[in-house]
Structure to design on (324 residues):
């Protein structure tokens, strides 16, 4: 995964754009159609990745980690959030889009430092072979809680930046819509998907028809959660969890086909695209981003570690974490 990110950085404006600007402009022209095409492929990559992660996640094991995951996520957000707020007194004013709104900038930095990227966590767990281990599932569960809470917090910060005040009604609607979506998927969605896959299996003769149905389901759930205001990847994960835990019709060859398409082609495009968007050459003082990165990593390590220690005294699944 780090190699895929670095490939994007090397091909982006940071290196390729600096060394050969004329060639870079030809390869990546300032054309909105080309930019949207690459962005669409990247979005498809991350949605397919979370669909695959949801398929491979055993909800029966994940459900038993609720308390531990919440504690790890809670400590892992509160301490980094406080450190992110503290950065507002240190960062120079020219990094602010609006220097007179330092508090809003501080809140944005706090949320950015506090949350964890579920696609990145999931890909690392796959690369390390930890996705089917209890420790890997705990990390994934805590990351999902982090990511969902982070997007809710980010919606508050965005509303504060746009209107200068928090719209409590919009936030309540956002939380209620997300809860309603989860409840529908939990109580009815997986039964509906089981019937759809059974119909595709029994009534159609389209090759890889179930794979198409799985992708359409993931895209539909991603559209719903993106429209709600949470994030598209959350909907894709829920779709995968419904398909993987609610239907025996999803067989090994279906999972293998999705894995080959996702991990072999689409997911690398997403991570390379993320690196492609970063222009580290614009940072005049490399010590500053390195210091912010060190604070963010240290705060997350201390916070998540404190949560793990507070929850792990009687949980044997956390012994590898404590021994490590």
């Amino acid at each position: 995964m780090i190699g895929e990110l670095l490939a994007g950085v090397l091909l982006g404006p940071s290196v390729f754009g600096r060394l050969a600007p004329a060639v870079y402009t030809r390869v990546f022209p300032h054309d909105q159609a080309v930019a949207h095409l690459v962005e669409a492929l990247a979005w498809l990559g991350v949605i397919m990745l979370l669909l695959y992660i949801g398929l491979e996640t055993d909800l029966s094991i994940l459900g038993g980690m609720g308390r531990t995951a919440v504690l790890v996520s809670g400590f892992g957000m509160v301490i980094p959030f406080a450190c992110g707020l503290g950065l507002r007194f240190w960062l120079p004013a020219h990094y602010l889009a609006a220097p007179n709104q330092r508090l809003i900038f501080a809140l944005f930095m706090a949320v950015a430092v506090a949350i964890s990227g579920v696609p990145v966590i999931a890909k690392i767990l796959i690369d390390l072979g930890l996705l089917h281990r209890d420790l890997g599932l705990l990390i994934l569960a805590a990351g999902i809680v982090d990511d969902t809470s982070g997007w809710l917090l980010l919606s508050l910060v965005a509303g504060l930046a746009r209107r200068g005040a928090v719209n409590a009604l919009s936030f309540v609607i956002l939380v209620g819509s997300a809860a309603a979506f989860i409840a529908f998927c939990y109580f009815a969605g997986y039964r509906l998907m089981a019937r759809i896959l059974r119909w595709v299996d029994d009534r159609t003769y389209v090759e890889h028809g179930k794979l198409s149905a799985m992708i359409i389901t993931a895209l539909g759930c991603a559209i719903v959660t993106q429209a709600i205001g949470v994030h598209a990847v959350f909907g894709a994960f829920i779709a995968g969890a419904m398909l993987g835990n609610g239907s025996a019709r999803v067989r090994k060859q279906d999972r293998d086909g999705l894995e080959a398409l996702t991990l072999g082609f689409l997911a690398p495009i997403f991570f390379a695209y993320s690196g492609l968007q970063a222009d580290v050459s614009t940072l005049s003082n490399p010590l500053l981003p390195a210091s912010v990165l060190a604070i963010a990593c240290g705060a997350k390590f201390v916070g998540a570690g404190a949560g793990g220690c507070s929850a792990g005294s009687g949980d044997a699944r956390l012994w590898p974490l404590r021994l490590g």
Notes: The two ends are 22 Å apart (CA to CA). Residues 2-323 form a domain with the Na+/H+ antiporter like fold fold (CATH 1.20.1530.20). Confidence is low (pLDDT under 50) at residues 313-324. The chain has 15 helices and no strands.
